[in-house]
Specification:
alpha/beta, Aminopeptidase, seven-stranded mixed sheet
Length: about 280
């Protein structure tokens, strides 16, 4: 059995589907905790409860890879070279210096330098992606086609990052706006988008979130690996305070299973569509 670091959670399934959870963690290592302005700010932008929202996926046979480390320590869905994935748009980097609302994360003089960034790459980024690569390779030995599904969420309103209210479903396939895909076959993204449409909830394909480094890096369509990102607005499964009321007492709110039921129903349809796509292609 592989010996993973305590913060890295890997569940090996037998179906041709790998689900990545790079941003659901909120742990702050003891040696870094005192460098942040506050633990709450350093945890605030997590993809809260997303791994719990998708807990049913293991029952479908999916493999899951999850980090328990806060994205404020290092963002596992960014290019490790530090190159921006969204040129010209406000975003956060490999080792973010600010929150999504452009507030400083670090106390003065405590920001990570190049040596510290390199240490975090070695300590956190490298093991996560080694595990993700290994799971994709393991399943590719068994199936000609595997789907990599990168699972995310974000608050519905963040003016520093996007205008207005984000659609409930934000499907990213590393393509330009609309139904052109580069990280997966259009047959996959078409059916996933259709289930989002049938939900009756707002959705967009390759809108503000087109897929991060994981979606872009692991895509290998000729090699049988199709990847996509699903960015959910948090309001679909938890109750969001108004942006002006966001503070340590109001956020995060718990996952509300009753409230989340319609969203979870659609997500189950989406994951089953991913499995059907991979299984059909593998059988062919």
């Amino acid at each position: 059995m592989n010996a993973y670091p305590s913060w890295l959670e890997v569940h090996e399934g037998d179906a041709p589907l790998v689900i990545s959870f790079p941003h659901t963690g909120s742990d702050l290592p003891d040696d870094l905790r005192g460098r942040f302005v506050s633990p709450w700010l350093a945890r605030r932008d997590a993809d809260w409860w997303v791994h719990e929202l998708y807990a049913f996926a293991r029952g479908l046979g999916a493999t899951t890879v999850r980090s328990a480390i806060s994205r404020s320590v290092i963002d596992l869905n960014r290019d490790p070279s530090g190159v921006s994935l969204y040129p010209g748009q406000n975003t956060t980097g490999l080792c973010p210096l600010t929150t999504f609302d452009n507030q400083p994360l670090y106390s003065d003089g405590m920001e990570p330098d190049e040596a510290e960034i390199a240490r975090r790459r070695d300590t956190y980024f490298a093991p996560y992606h080694a595990a993700l690569r290994a799971q994709i390779a393991r399943l590719r030995e068994r199936y000609p086609t595997v789907v990599v599904y990168d699972a995310h969420s974000i608050r519905s309103q963040i003016p520093h990052l996007f205008d207005g209210e984000l659609p409930q479903f934000n499907l990213g396939t590393a393509g330009p706006s609309g139904a052109v895909d580069t990280s997966c076959d259009n047959a996959l993204s078409d059916v996933v988008e259709n289930f989002c449409r049938l939900s009756g909830m707002p959705h967009v394909r390759n809108g503000r979130f087109k897929g991060g480094w994981i979606t872009r890096h692991y895509s290998d369509i000729p090699g049988g690996v199709h990847s996509l990102q699903m960015e959910l607005a948090c309001r679909g499964y938890m109750h969001e305070p108004a942006p002006a009321a966001l503070d340590a007492h109001s956020w995060p709110t718990p996952l509300d299973d009753d409230h989340a039921a319609p969203l979870r129903h659609t997500l189950a349809q989406v994951l089953n569509a991913c499995l059907e796509f991979a299984s059909t292609r593998s059988a062919a």
